[in-house]
Design goal:
The protein contains 6 helices and 17 strands. It is an alpha/beta fold.
Length: about 350
């Protein structure tokens, strides 16, 4: 399949720049993957698509305020560093701009010496390995000096940094939020439990691939970056029992999908495990793990749009997106939501 097969027209004014005041006040587009039928509802209606015994799967990764603006010690040139992955100890893999100014031995100063980063290795595509130098607790230092790594299509400043994390975010390690989960409130999750729907958690730390567009015309030639995932024994047992009962597994977000499908592909069942995945899901893929998907609206020509097209059919998805544009839905990270059902 060709990259252009996943393109669509999107007016810039429909790209959401700020989150809604209430997380669960977004709109919900309901897409039936068998018939292609589209229904327009509110996100709080999501409960109507869950039955007792179903399991809702959430990604509990947490985004660090990991975008830092500093200066080179030698020249005072401005350098932007985005912490992507904790390699070992105080060594982090970082996306660096402008990378051409940063070489082995370069020291970048943030906050008048409160945090320093010494480059110890140069990699391709703007990636550098830095050794971080600071006193105290890194998270507290980042909360003081850093900002949330919002996607490049968001130009407004985020007033409340917590709005780029889910209410259930726990395991620190992501370079971007699993945005489908941003719509849930603690109150809504309580209503899910009251309906006797199970809530289980996986972890997938969203990494560099989120920031990389597909650069090949034949999508089968695209290579995904690897991302770290985990599943606990408790979650594995709950999911296997859900399957055994014939109930639905409802994935919140494409990151949860990639975790669940990776594990099912590797082991033929759900089991406690951790590791790295570079799974690339596009039309032709046969899903083994999930039934329904709650997700946001994704960028044209993106791997995420390819994933939802694999689940619901490319024509169904593009028709749903066309209707969402006509109805002036809000798109991307802080935008509205959709559920793919059957």
């Amino acid at each position: 399949m060709q990259l252009e097969d996943f393109d669509y027209e999107l007016p810039k004014e429909l790209i959401a720049q700020v989150p809604l005041e209430k997380r669960d006040s977004s709109r919900l587009l309901v897409l039936d993957k068998k018939t292609g039928e589209v229904v327009h509802r509110q996100f709080t209606d999501i409960l109507d698509y869950m039955n007792p015994g179903d399991t809702l799967v959430l990604n509990d990764t947490k985004v660090l305020p990991a975008r830092l603006i500093g200066v080179k010690e030698e020249t005072h040139a401005v350098i932007e560093v985005l912490l992507l992955k904790d390699i070992q100890g105080e060594v982090w893999e970082c996306l660096t701009k402008p990378a051409k100014r940063v070489h082995v031995g370069t020291i970048v100063d943030f906050g008048d010496g409160k945090l320093k980063a010494k480059c110890i290795e140069e990699k391709e595509e703007g990636i550098r390995l830095f050794e971080l130098i600071y006193e105290g607790i890194l998270l507290e230092t980042l909360e003081e000096l850093g900002t949330m790594p919002l996607p490049p299509y968001i130009h407004e400043k985020l007033k409340d940094q917590s709005r780029y994390n889910t209410v259930y975010a726990k395991n620190i390690g992501s370079a971007a939020a699993p945005t489908a989960g941003l719509h849930f409130t603690n109150e809504l999750l309580e209503k899910v439990k009251e309906k006797n729907v199970n809530i289980e958690y996986v972890t997938l730390h969203v990494g560099l691939g989120t920031f990389r567009p597909v650069a090949v015309q034949n999508i089968e030639e695209h290579k995904m970056h690897t991302e770290y995932y985990e599943m606990t024994e408790e979650t594995a047992i709950a999911l296997n029992e859900t399957k055994k009962r014939g109930n639905k597994i409802i994935s919140v977000g494409t990151t949860s999908v990639r975790t669940l499908e990776t594990i099912m592909n590797r082991y033929g069942r759900f089991q406690a495990c951790s590791g790295f995945t570079d799974i690339f899901i596009y039309p032709g893929y046969e899903f083994q793990a999930i039934d329904f998907l709650i997700t946001n609206f994704h960028l044209p020509k993106s791997t995420l749009l390819m994933l939802v097209s694999a689940l619901a059919g490319r024509e169904n998805v593009l028709n749903a997106y066309h209707q969402a544009v006509q109805e002036k839905y809000r798109f991307f990270s802080f935008g509205d939501s959709m559920i793919i059902k059957y």
